[in-house]
Amino acid sequence: MSNRSAFALFILFLASQVSAQSVRIPWSNYGHDPQHTAISSVASQPLSHILWQTPVDLNPQFDGNDLHIHYGSPIVTRANTIIIPIKTGATDGFRVDARNAGTGAFKWTQSTDYALPPHNWVPSFGVALTPKNRLYLPGAGGTVYYRDNPDATSGSGTGQIAFYGLSEYNAHAATYQSNVRINTPITVDRYGNIFFGFYVTGPTPANLQSGIARISQDGIGIWKAASTISGDNAMLKVVHNCAPALSNDHKILYLAVSNANPAANASPGAGYLVAIDSRTLVPISKVRLKDVAPPGNDANLSDEGSASPTIGSDGDVYFGVLENPYYSNHQRGWLLHFDSTLAQRKDAGAFGWDDTASVVPASMVPSYQGNSPYLVMTKDNNYVEAGGDGVNKLAILDPRDHMTDPISGARVMKEILTVAGPTPDAAFLSNHPNAVREWCINMAAVDPATKSVLVNNEDGKMYRWNLTTNSLTEALTLTSGVGEAYTPTVVGMDGTVFAINNATLFALGQ
């Protein structure tokens, strides 16, 4: 049996075993799992109705008709409780709410004293869930709060931990609260260990430097500076919003570091994708992130994005960057592509800006005749503001085949399917008659059971992209539309579909 056939049978088995797999594969991390594949383990419901909705921002700050904020991804427990990150203030203030994912019935709320790092666009407040059903959420001073049994309405055990020691934090709380901020979503491995980036703005008694932290399932913390894991003293931090990703065997942790100062309106930096030992945080390998087109300048790593590494079933690593110089690729950036060791640079995708790629099992695309066991799904916007024609698309790419990109002329991963947004963009039609509204996703949910991808659009609608017919077969209006930083889509354990549009979380189903 071929690898592709075996993988297809595995996916069909998952789709037919909802009760069994729901015990072990909830939507527990940004991108569903520690590899950020965004593959749903249950069949999504039809996009027939808005079942319920709730704000994710109690004081949204608009810039004209735009929202420059990355809302944290909801997560879902095995018992179908959805945990919703919520921004409560104008510039800071966060809590999480728990609701029944199917009905929206309220269960509990928990506030946090977490404060954002310096930023321009508002970074995400990212929570995560362990296999033993412990919820972790960011707290002040680089600390993390936890809540056990988040399905219960009361009586759950709660606590606070710090990667540099809770006694150290308590002894100098004001200093750590002022000078240490978590700056990425939390990632959880299969053992219950957690990982996150943190940013240090001033001196601390523990002599912390911005970098990556690990806290074991029994509360023991370690950390490494960004300069240490990259071997480059110019590296200042983990890139804002870059959720660490784990290899398929959970032994290697991947993340990006940069030399950018994240102050408001600061220029993007340059840096590395690094691989480190997930148990010790000892460096394993690194690669300088470069523009695909000649002369191969350092790629731009923007703190306004939310690109995070994605790991394919073969161990390959995908990470989105901005091009350098600006506008040379219509500000689409590149989806850089490496083998698991980061030693081999492979064909990139033609779009990477602010996008975490989703993994699409090859069996989901009946027309596909290639030899890869999986394909890669990304946005493929072509921005008018950066010289494009405004035909903003979604794309399914083959990581083992290539084509010449018609915009840049670069060799890139081959497009297998594409679909353009369906709604004309009135702001550009006078000079660009084919311009359409953008796909506002930083991670699209992939549903093998229905051979479809669930995508949110700035026209205010949620769509189902059917990969069998290569068409948008379902659409549901959520809002009148808004320009927004990109948002995740999520599937609950009963198949309820979740999308964030105009600062509101919508639960969709039949």
Question: What would you note in describing this structure?
Answer:
The chain has five helices and 38 strands. Mean pLDDT is 94; it is low at 1-23. The chain is mostly beta strands and 510 residues long. Strands 1-38-37-36-30 form a five-stranded mixed β-sheet, with no helix packed on it.
| Portion in strands | 35-45%
What would you call the structural class? mainly beta
User: Radius of gyration from the CA trace?
Assistant: 21 Å
Calculate the terminal CA-CA distance, rounded to whole Å. 38 Å
Rough outline: globular
Number of H/I helices: 5
Largest pleated sheet: 5 strands, mixed
- How many DSSP E strands? 38
Helix percentage range: under 10%
Mean pLDDT over the residues: 94
Strand order of the largest sheet: 1-38-37-36-30
Poorly predicted sequence stretches spanning 5 or more consecutive residues: 1-23
Features:
5-stranded mixed sheet, 38 strands, 5-stranded antiparallel sheet, single chain, 5 helices, 510 residues
